Amino acid sequence: MRHDPWTSPAPQRGDVFVRRLLWLALVVAVLMVLWHWLPALQARWLAPAAAPAAERTVTPRGDLAADELATIELFEKARDSVVFISTAQVVRDAWTRNVWEVPRGNGSGFIWDDAGHVVTNYHVIEGASSAIVRLADGRDYRAALVGASPAHDIAVLRIGVGFKRPPPVPIGTSHDLKVGRKVFAIGNPFGLDWTLTTGIVSALDRTLDGGPGKPPIKHLIQTDAAINPGNSGGPLLDSAGRLIGINTAIYSPSGASAGIGFAVPVDTVVRVVPQQIQHGRYVRPALGIEVDETLNQRLVAATGVQGVYVLRVQPRGAAEQAGLQGVRMTPQELVPGDVIVAVEGKPVTSVGALLARLDDFRVGDTVWLSVRRGEQSREVAVTLQPGV
Questions:
Q1: Which one of 14, 26, 107, 337 is at 20 to 30 Å from 180 when CA atoms are compared?
Q2: Residue 252's Cα: distance from chain center in Å?
Q3: Could you confirm whether 123 is annotated as catalytic?
Q4: Residue 47 per-residue DSSP state
């Protein structure tokens, strides 16, 4: 039977809509494919034949700027004097009693003299059982600890350098620094050896807390030269390539450089390091008195007098010879001793502040103390003695 188009049922409206929608989707898909491949088709079929690639000529650099030349020369001269320090710590297995060394940390340092002394931060080698010093030419030496001063965050190591000794870092001064002067830091941040960063002196005479029972570290140089973990112990140089400080700490919430770094001033280094080399430790200038921070705070709160209370004077010590008195006990009461309120005109309000102020002087120097005894105040001259 033949199909009669005149008598066949007409297509439903819904079927027509679906077919139109499918055709529309197909057209859109084809257009999208063409749009995606159009650049490639144009490049292949419609673009003109590619011409041979023209060679580029090097633009002449010209002379380097004077400050660039100076920075390059400074780094090349100072690099050989900077060292990389890696430390290890002995550990013992509680069960097997086996002992071995594990890596502990690393930092930087610099050559101090021709005898092989290396200066770094105390916290770089603190708690370590051994240290390896690597020179800029790749030679490694096992180091021996000569002396350390936690109060100044300075330590001295010694290596047995034979021939081709690296030159010591030239020594500068820090008491005449000005905010805004250029500075250069060389070290090994994050183990990236012999890195140079630059900046300026941001501030002077900063103070960092030394920790419980320790005097604060005073007179620090603040700089915005990038200082990161591994830079500690490295030199901070002025534009003449002279040592003006030891990079020691940063202020950073993240642990990386935030543009606030601190360096121990070279004037402190020059005072401390020779004593460490000669005596194995820093001999602090002292008054020959006994003090205690906890008792001092209680006495200040009880009396309202700010200063450092002398608890006891050492027999035949400097304070006794100057006439200072400690706490005395009578049958009726406990009599407070002298209160040191200032050293050379600068107030001291805690034991840490007194120790830090005395550290500005040397053993044998005579300093004037402002002392209060009862309601009387007087000036007393004391010749500083060796401390412990």
A1: 107
A2: 10
A3: yes
A4: S
